[in-house]
Write a structure and sequence with these properties.
Adenine-n6-DNA-methyltransferase TaqI, Chain A, domain 2; 23 strands; about 35% helix; about 25% strand
């Protein structure tokens, strides 16, 4: 460790803030310059970012405190919240919610600093100040202490961690492809090529036509039960629960282990081969969690999730895809109620009473032969993602502190 040295972030980088052009000037917006806000990094899991939701014009850049940041800049959110981080894939600018690092490349490697930030988010938050919301200033960031290995070792450490993240990203992208494939197969089998009533002559011979029956009309409840077994983890403070919460879903579908003392509200029990459908803000994200095998002991979920339990396993993938197909999901989500934009909910009855055709079991079983390998592969990838994330998160502090060394 003798070759590692203590220094300040300001010794290895220029710390640059951002700005926002006047929103009253249309000519300042919708230009060719990528402009990022902390919102663009909310839920963002990749290392590099090329653009945000909005862009500004050259005129907007000239008439604001925003600055062009070069490719490779480490972008750090300094408020609302502190500690989101990404690397600029190309020249970008940001609003004032960032304090970004343009590194001295002969001293510091940007991917190493990216992981150092990730490992020190709590440290960054602890030095934030403010009453309305916490913020970390440029001068504070410049004076943050960092233990810096030699440049070659920085690259080696970054290589280990980024190889894990690259694999995680590849699996996420593969799953998106597989999910689209599963939905396309489902639409072909149950929507586009679904049997339709066909006209036939009336038996009375009067020229009128009656219809041969296609699939009958039913609802989701024909295939499922509304599982509502309530537990009170707070009554068992020392018991460990595998908690399928809304944040856990949003965090790449990773249930968290929590003791009963940490869970202050009632929960539903979760069983294998079931679905969790969020009644909270379903219009924001497609929040349907397919649970093939529960993880850990005492699996429970937020009561914001409605537990959809198929009457038999052969209905599992059919109901999952029927509810998650974009067209159907959006119809259910359109029924949200409530005045608060952050806490709108649907009536659970809208899930279980949603129209669903009554399909012959043999047809569903034939579909499962094709669809099940695709959905099982998605599940296998998710398990591998969790394993890789756990390995990365275990290695990160050890590599950053020098407890684990990488050969150069």
């Amino acid at each position: 460790m003798s070759e590692w040295r203590e220094c300040k972030l300001g010794d290895i980088a220029d710390v640059i803030g951002g700005g926002t052009p006047s929103t009253d000037k249309k000519e300042y917006w919708n230009g060719v310059i990528p402009w990022l806000t902390p919102r663009d990094l909310t839920g963002y899991s990749r290392t590099y970012i090329s653009k945000g939701e909005r862009s500004i014009s050259e005129l907007g850049l000239k008439n604001s405190s925003a600055r062009i940041l070069p490719k490779g800049t480490v972008l750090i959110t300094s408020r609302a919240p502190i500690g989101y981080v990404a690397i600029a894939e190309n020249p970008v600018c940001t609003n004032q919610g960032f304090k970004s690092l343009v590194l001295k490349e002969n001293i510091a490697f940007n991917i190493f600093i990216f992981y150092w930030i990730k490992n020190n988010v709590d440290y960054l938050k602890s030095v934030g100040t403010g009453t309305t919301f916490e913020e970390i200033s440029g001068s504070v960031i410049k004076n943050l202490d960092i233990l810096l290995p030699p440049l070659l070792e920085q690259r080696a450490i970054a290589g280990v961690l980024s190889s894990l993240d690259d694999k995680i990203d590849l699996l996420h992208r593969q799953n998106k492809t597989l999910e689209a494939m599963a939905e396309a197969l489902f639409r072909q089998w149950f929507i586009e090529d679904a049997p339709q009533p066909s006209p036939r002559p009336s038996p009375e011979g009067r020229g009128r036509e009656e219809a041969d029956e296609g699939w009958g009309e039913g609802k989701v409840l024909d295939y499922c039960l509304h599982h509502k077994e309530v537990v009170k983890p707070q009554d068992f403070p020392e018991k460990l629960y595998s908690h399928y919460s809304i944040p856990a879903f949003d965090n790449n579908l990773n249930p968290v282990l929590e003791y009963g003392a940490e869970i202050q509200s009632n929960k539903y029990t979760v069983v294998s081969n079931t679905l969790l459908f969020s009644k909270l803000n379903p219009h924001r994200d497609k929040r349907i969690w397919l649970i093939l095998d529960t993880l850990g002991e005492n699996p429970v979920c937020s009561t914001e999730f409605q537990v959809v339990l198929p009457k038999c396993r052969k209905y599992l993938f059919f109901i999952y895809l029927w509810l998650s197909t974009t067209q159907n999901y959006n119809k259910i989500a359109s029924g949200v109620g409530g005045t608060s934009g952050s806490h709108q909910r649907i009536d659970p009855a809208d899930i279980f009473n949603f129209p669903c055709p009554r399909v012959e079991d043999s047809y569903i079983e034939s579909f499962n032969i094709i669809a099940e390998p695709v959905l099982m592969k998605i599940n296998k990838n998710r398990i591998q993602i969790r394993t890789l994330e756990k390995l990365r998160d275990t290695l990160l502090p050890k590599l950053m502190s020098g407890e684990v060394r990488v050969k150069v």
